[in-house]
Design brief:
Elements lengths: L6 H22 L8 H14 L3 E2 L11 E5 L2 E3 L13 E10 L2 E10 L5 H19 L7 H14 L3 E2 L5 E3 L6 E5 L16 E4 L2 E3 L5 E3 L6 E3 L5 E3 L2 E6 L2 E4 L4
Antiparallel strand pairs: 1-4, 2-4, 3-12, 4-5, 6-10, 7-8, 9-14, 10-13, 11-12, 14-15
Helix pairs in contact: 3-4
Length: about 250
């Protein structure tokens, strides 16, 4: 069942969204060659606590960390590690904060020093896909309208869209209904209603859209070893247009 949020609910959700956004702003200056994703994880735990939030993912279905740290060919759900980031890497940091019983969820890809032209283009197009999708997230449109905007922009620029990891509703829980891939056809899928709070979180690969899962049961990688990037916001659908709750 899709749980629609009132305007008052959406206002209460802003706190978690602001905390997640502030975290991403803070780590942008941290990410450089030599830093480890465990350093970022440790910062995240402190940051959430200092800002009155909880790390929602820590212990979620056995996941042991407050962040997901996905480097280069890792699409999503990578474990933070002691391996230093190196010049030319791209790393996606995903964090979910719980504040006052509401969830904020956002992932962002970062360049580590100077990256290749391919990596920079992948990151840029993925971010553009995020905002093109958000533009279509208006009352009365269908999810196919949103994701068609994502898919066509990605594929026009030579990138593929991951099919197997889904966007989702957000509220008191991280994963609420509905769930949906980031591909679609105009006029298809469920209709967007006022009060829906959703993630738009395109994951684009430089090669195949197919993926594999590591032995840890979490880490999703591109099947061909190509680079992957992701940008994610939590948005609220209201009559005036979409609100980005995790806007930085």
């Amino acid at each position: 069942m899709v749980i629609l949020k009132s305007r008052a609910d959406i206002e209460e959700m802003r706190k978690a969204g602001r905390i997640v956004a502030a975290f991403h702003q803070a780590i942008a200056d941290m990410i450089r060659p030599g830093v480890t994703t465990l350093d970022i994880e440790s910062f995240a735990v402190r940051f959430l606590k200092e800002n009155g939030a909880k790390a929602y993912t820590m212990g979620y279905n056995g996941y042991p960390f407050a962040t997901c740290a996905s480097v280069n060919d890792v699409i999503a759900h990578g474990f933070p590690s002691r391996k230093p980031l190196k010049e030319g890497d791209i790393v996606t940091i995903d964090i979910v904060a719980e504040a006052d019983g509401w969830i904020g969820d956002s992932a962002w890809s970062y360049a580590v020093g100077e990256v290749s032209d391919e990596a920079r283009k992948l990151m840029q197009i993925t971010k553009e896909c995020l905002y093109l999708g958000i533009e279509q997230a208006v009352v009365g449109n269908r999810i196919g309208d949103v994701m068609h905007a994502v898919q066509t922009h990605a594929e026009h620029n030579g990138f593929s869209v991951v099919r197997d990891l889904l966007g989702h509703g957000v509220g008191r829980e991280m994963h609420e209904e509905p769930n949906y891939p980031h591909i679609g056809k105009p006029g298809k899928g469920f209709r967007l209603k006022e009060g829906m709070v959703l993630t738009i979180e395109p994951m684009l690969n430089a090669g195949t859209p197919l993926m594999t899962i590591d032995a840890d049961g979490w880490t999703a990688r591109t099947a061909d070893g190509s680079l992957s990037a992701q940008y994610e916001h939590t948005i609220a659908v209201i009559a005036d247009g979409p609100i980005i709750l995790t806007a930085q």
